[in-house]
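=== Given protein ===
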Amino acid sequence: MYYSYFGLRQAPFKITPDTRLFFPGGNRGAVLEALVYAIATGEGMVKVVGEVGSGKTMLCRMLERELPENAEIVYLANPSLSPDNILHAIAFELHLPVAGSEDRLKVMHALQEYLVRKHAENRRIVAFVEEAQSMPLETLEEIRLLSNLETQDEKLLQIVLFGQPELDESLMNPHIRQLKERITYSFYLHPFSIAEVRDYLSSRLRASGYKGMGVFTRAAIRSLTRYSKGLLRRINILADKSLLAAYAGGEIKVRTRHVRRAARDTEFVTKPGAAVLAMALSFCLALAAIGWFAWQRFIPVSALVEDTRLFKDVPLSGAIGRGLEGADSPKQP
């Protein structure tokens, strides 16, 4: 592979979250600090929204690492949980002695007893809900009810919702407006700019052992930003393939042609041929629509000559005139 060729001791652009390679730029570090603060101060519910591949999972792993030792984490990674199943899922993660056949009331009672006991021990229970945008509305409403578990001064269960922008659309539903009102902090993970992509690439390479000058040219960084749309997962995929292309060509710099080659080998990038074909198809459909519209409005000459009285006072000439005269004249034997 290209690792030793570029003086790297590990893969710099793996798509699996590696907290050792966390990049605090692009507002990620500020969001992480705000999340730690919100949980440390006992805020009940927090929301983090970002596009697919914007770094939500990495942020989730970093949050777990940065929280104080008295925090106990519950992961809810299955978005298809029903309202009853989510209670059992939390009980299972907390190792509560609750059978799968127990009804909702008993599970809620056992969970509340556990949370009260942990609160007395000065411990915090924090639930990380991933892919929250795919959860049924009824399950999101159940999460709101869980946020009602509290003492006189603090929430017993703190909840962090991680989701795609569709989560905000779900929260606009009037049936769960009370859940939206319970969210005290909301954060959005924006795509990276060209400058942030440049710093991100450099940070990852340095953390992976690279000690030379910049590997990616400025033009290559602009091209990579355009193809990736500033999304971290796409940046990682394209950067990895671009480094491989430069290595295969025996070059020590990643240039625009290497990024283009990587983009051609990547599913999420629209292929130029496909774009041209789509444009050509759209053009043909537009022409067909115009032709159909014109045909609908066209009145053939035969319709006009059905009653020749329309033309008795109109001088006619040319082929149309001769045609009409022929139509009025009796056929010669």
